Amino acid sequence: KPIPGAGFALGMERLCLLLETLNKLPETPATAAVYIVHAGEGSSTVALRLAEQLRDKMPALAVLSHCGGGGFKSQFKRADKAGAEIALILGEQELADGTVTVKFLRDTGRGQETLAIDSVAATVAANLGY
């Protein structure tokens, strides 16, 4: 039985251009306390699970997980641009070992440390006051 209907679609790029034309784009980029940097086969799945785990344990924590291509250098630039305090690094070695490297981006004296993936949430919470 025929049913009348109507539809509408708008491409993401056209929507962004429209917002830019109307001066409705946000002035500041998204900020995050934690940025997950990853590379290697299977790393995106682990990164998304880690981001979900952090958000479940600390709902107020702003977590960004890198989505898209690029090496570590470009990902760290994005983490810095997002204002992240901590970068969680998932490379091939970390994936093989079941660990995460925690890099403190704003505290230059701290450097980085490697932790078991299960203890990352507690370390993030302790260092960011959650």
Which overall shape is indicated by the principal axes computed on the Cα atoms?
A: globular
Unreliable stretches (pLDDT < 50, length at least 5) are none
Provide the β-strand percentage band: 15-25%
- Round the mean pLDDT to the nearest integer and report it: 91
How many H/I helices? 5
Euclidean distance between termini CA atoms = 57 Å
The count of strands amounts to 5
Helix-strand pattern, N to C? HEHEHEHEEH
Largest sheet: 5 strands, mixed
Biggest sheet strand line-up: 2-1-3-4-5
Helix share, percent: 25-40%
Radius of gyration: 19 Å
Structural class by sheet pairing and helices: alpha/beta
Describe the structure.
The chain contains 5 helices and 5 strands, in the order αβαβαβαββα. Strand 1, helix 2 (about 45-55) and strand 2 (about 65) form a beta-alpha-beta unit. The model has no long low-confidence stretch (mean pLDDT about 90). With about 130 residues, the chain is of the alpha/beta class. Helices cover about 40% and strands about 20% of the residues. A 5-stranded mixed sheet has the order 2-1-3-4-5, sandwiched between helices. The protein has helices at about 10-20, 45-55, 70-80, 90-95, 120-130; strands at about 35-40, 65, 85-90, 100-105, 110-115.
